[in-house]
Amino acid sequence: MATAREVATKHINALMDEINELKLSRDAVARIMLEKAIAIYREERDIEDIAAELQGAAENLDPDADFMFMRP
User: Fold this and answer.
1) Which of 10, 63, 65, 66 is an S-S bond match for 70, by CB 3.0 to 4.6 Å?
2) Taking the C-alpha atoms of 8, 14, 17 and 19 in order, what is their torsion angle to the nearest 10 degrees?
3) pTM given for the model
4) In Å, how far are 2, 5, 12, 23, 47 from 18, measured between CA atoms?
5) pLDDT (tens digit, 9 = 90+) per residue, 7-54?
6) Helices (H), strands (E): how many in the chain?
């Protein structure tokens, strides 16, 4: 049985292939995907929880930095 990550990754990879063929903006598509992800979150989560999820992601954008929850 496929995982949610495997299914999503398959479709995102296909989307990226299509937008590259059509020479569409990857940034614009990413913004739309974020908009859609937030809409999905809003179906089951409260606004404060969504904000915390997004804040946590924003605080951990630097791949070279330790995650906030990591100990030295």
Assistant:
1) 66
2) -80
3) 0.79
4) 23, 20, 10, 8, 32
5) 999 999 999 999 999 999 999 999 999 999 999 999 999 999 999 999
6) 3, 0
Contact in structure between 37 and 45 (CB atoms under 8 Å): no
Of 28 and 59, which is predicted with more confidence?
28
Contact 14, 8 (CB under 8 A): no
Q: Is 23 left (phi over 0), alpha (psi -120 to 50) or beta?
A: left
Distance CA 63, CA 60 (A): 7
CA distances from 3 to 6, 9, 12, 35, 43 (A): 5, 10, 14, 23, 21
Place of tokens 């605080």: 59
